[in-house]
Design goal:
The chain is built from two helices and nine strands. It is of the alpha+beta class. A five-stranded mixed β-sheet has the order 3-1-9-5-7. It is flat, with a radius of gyration of 25 Å.
């Protein structure tokens, strides 16, 4: 009899524990889902992680600091599963802070299907990202290429003269991602109009 009454008392406790665990799993999933946008906002505010702005800067008359030369190296890569050929036509460039510079990137879609790409930039060291101002960049919008098509994509930028004196070299890396599945309805309209 005692054993029977103990089992009856434990059953409601097990149900409460299971319910709490299920709620905890949903809360953890929701937090994980919200973490990426929160991280992006944090990086935008602090400039950490080398993220650059995804909006065009306006080039105003800036005094060019000819006493300093900054070497900028360009690295390109494609995300896993992205079949495009992608390379910087200029591997390195020396610029003075405040001076407008232009470089170009070559892409080719060797796949047998149309693909839409998105380029994501990052800067190393991360604190230099705050001083890179792009006035024109292929990373601002999606890049659709039909099967077998190739293109040269320009990028214009200048380095803010406020760049700390201890930074004389930084790397700007672009990674291409295949976003065809997400962008397909937009691409169908764009490619039909061309």
């Amino acid at each position: 009899m005692q054993l029977e009454s103990q089992n009856k008392n434990q059953q409601p406790e097990h149900g409460k524990t299971v319910a709490k665990l299920v709620v905890l799993v949903f809360v953890m999933f929701g937090f994980g889902f919200a973490l990426v946008p929160l991280y992006d906002v944090f990086c935008d505010i602090t400039g950490i992680n080398g993220k650059t702005s995804d909006q065009a800067a306006v080039y105003e008359a800036v005094d060019v600091d000819e006493s300093r030369t900054i070497m900028v190296e360009f690295i390109t890569r494609t995300n896993t599963g992205m079949p495009w050929e992608f390379e910087a036509q200029t591997r390195r460039v020396d610029v003075h802070p405040g001076e407008m510079a232009e470089v170009a990137f070559y892409v080719r879609n060797p796949a047998g299907r149309d693909i839409v790409a998105q380029a994501i930039p990052s800067v190393t060291p991360g604190n230099a990202a705050l001083y890179v101002n792009k006035t024109e960049c292929f990373c601002f919008q999606h890049q659709p290429l039909k099967a077998g098509e190739e293109a040269v994509m320009p990028m214009k930028f200048y380095i803010d003269p406020q760049l700390p004196d201890d930074i004389s070299f930084f790397t700007l890396q672009y990674t291409l991602y295949d976003i065809s599945a997400k962008a397909q309805p937009v691409v169908d309209v764009a490619m039909n109009n061309s």
